[in-house]
Amino acid sequence: MSAAVTNAVAGAAVQTVSRVHYLLRLADPSLILAQQLGAWIGHAPAIEEDLGLANTALDLLGQARLLLEYAGELEGRGRDADALAFLRDPSEYLNVTLAEQPNGDFGDTIVRQFLIDAWQCELYERLCGSTDARLAAIAAKAVKEARYHLRYSSGWVVRLGDGTAESHARMQAALARLWPYTQELCAADELDRAMCAEGFGADLDALRDAWSRRVDAVLREATLARPADAPYPWQGKQGRHGEHLGHLLAEMQYLQRAFPGATW
Amino acid sequence: MVSAATAVGVARRALSEVADPEIPVISVLDLGIVRSIELEPDGTLAVGIAPTYSGCPATQVIKADIGAALAAAGFERLRLTEVLAPPWTSDWISAAGRRKLADYGIAPPPAPVGSPRALRGAEAPPACPRCGSTDTELVSEFGSTPCKALHRCRSCLEPFDRFKCI
C-alpha cells in the first residue's frame, strides 16, 4: 500500500475507535444509573416512587442498549450490547463519575438523577442534530424520555428542597456532596471536541450554560443554594474511576462472569 | 402467487388481531408501532416496528407475537426490523385506539397538537375515564407499566391509569 492509502486506513480506524468511545460515554452513564435505580425496587419511600425509579431505570437501560448495540457494530469485534455491558472491566467503562456515586438516601438519589436528567436533556437535544443518522435517531427517542425523567426528578427536588427543615437540609447536603462531580459533565476533552468537530457529537462547552440555566431554575424554586464550582480530579469518562464503580460492576456482572454465556 | 396489495391486506388484518400484551384491548396497529408492511420481490414480508419506550419489556413479546400471527396467516418468509426514526410518540396512537383505551378505563393521551408544552407539564388534567369529570389529579408520573401514569378523580374518587403523553 502507498503511504497515503496506509494513512487513510489508519485515519478511518482512529475515527471508528473515537466514535465507539464516544458512544460508550453516552451509553455508560445510563447503564450505570439503571443498575443503581434498580436497587431501589422494594425500598423506595412509597410504591409510586418504586415505580418511578424502576420505570426511569427501564428507559435508561433501553437507551444504553441502543447505544451499546451501535458501539458494538461499529467496533466490529463481535461484541454485542450484552458483551459490552457484562464483560468490560471498570477501566473500560466511560461513564461520567457522577453516575457511579452511591444511591445514599432518597434525596441523594434524586439529586444525582436530577443533575444527570438535565444534562441528558441538553445532550440528546443537540445529538438530534448529529450528522450520523443512527445516533440522531437514538437521541430523538431518548430526549423525550429524558424530559419526562427531568419532570419527575425536578418535582422531587422542589418538594424536598422547599419542604421541611429536615428535608431541606438533607437536599442541600446531597447537593453539596454531588456538585463537584458535575464539573465533568460539560468539560470537553480532546475526544469530545473531535466528535463535535466532525458533526458526530455535541458541543459540550455550549451545553454548560443551558444545563446551568435548567438546574438553577429548579434550585431556585426548591430554595436550594447552588454550590460554588471547584476544580475536580475525576475522569470517569476517560476510564479513571473512583472506588464505587468496581463494586457496582462486580454485582451487575457477577452472573455472566461466573457462568459465561448463561441465558434463561 | 398473490399480489403485493393483497398480501399486505392479509398481513394488516392479521396484525389487527395482535394485542398489546400489557393493554390487551388495543392492537399493535392501534398503538401505531407498525410503520411499514411490504412484500418484497422474493416473497419476504418485511415489517417495520417502532418500539414505544426504549426499555419497554413488552417490545420483545410484541415482536414475537407479530411473527407468530403473520406465520399463522401463511407468511413463511418474514423480516421484522426495528424502526427508530421518526421515534414513536403517543401521537401515533390511532383515533380508534384512543377510544378503546378510554372504554377500557385508561385515559388516552390528548389528541396530537404538535406542541411540546405537554412535555413541560403544562397539559390539561385528563378526564376521568369512568365518570368523565375533569376534576382529576396526578398521583404518580409513573404507573403500572412504562407507558402509563397514575391519576385520581376527585369527583368519583376512583384512581385511574392514563397513557403517558410523550
Question: Which tags fit this structure?
Answer:
heterodimer, A: 264 residues, mainly alpha, Ferritin, 69% helix, 0% strand, B: 166 residues, alpha/beta, GMP Synthetase, Chain A, domain 3, 2 domains, four-stranded mixed sheet
Give the topology, please.
The complex is a heterodimer of chains A (about 260) and B (about 170).
Chain A: H1 3-38, H2 47-75, H3 81-86, H4 106-127, H5 133-161, H6 165-182, H7 190-197, H8 204-221, H9 244-258
Helix pairs in contact in A: 1-2, 1-7, 2-5, 4-5, 4-6, 4-8
Chain B: H1 4-15, H2 28-31, E1 34-39, E2 45-49, H3 58-72, E3 78-82, H4 95-104, E4 106-107, E5 136-140, E6 148-153, E7 159-163
Parallel strand pairs in B: 2-3, 4-7
Antiparallel strand pairs in B: 1-2, 5-6, 6-7
Mean pLDDT metric of chain B: 88
Largest interface: A-B, 31 and 25 residues
The main β sheet of chain B shows up as: 4 strands, mixed
Which overall shape of chain A is indicated by the principal axes computed on the Cα atoms?
globular
Architecture per CATH nomenclature, i.e. the level-2 architecture of the largest domain in chain B: 2-Layer Sandwich
Q: Which percent range describes the beta-strand content of chain B?
A: 15-25%
- Which strand order does the major sheet of chain B show? 4-7-6-5
Number of strands of chain B: 7
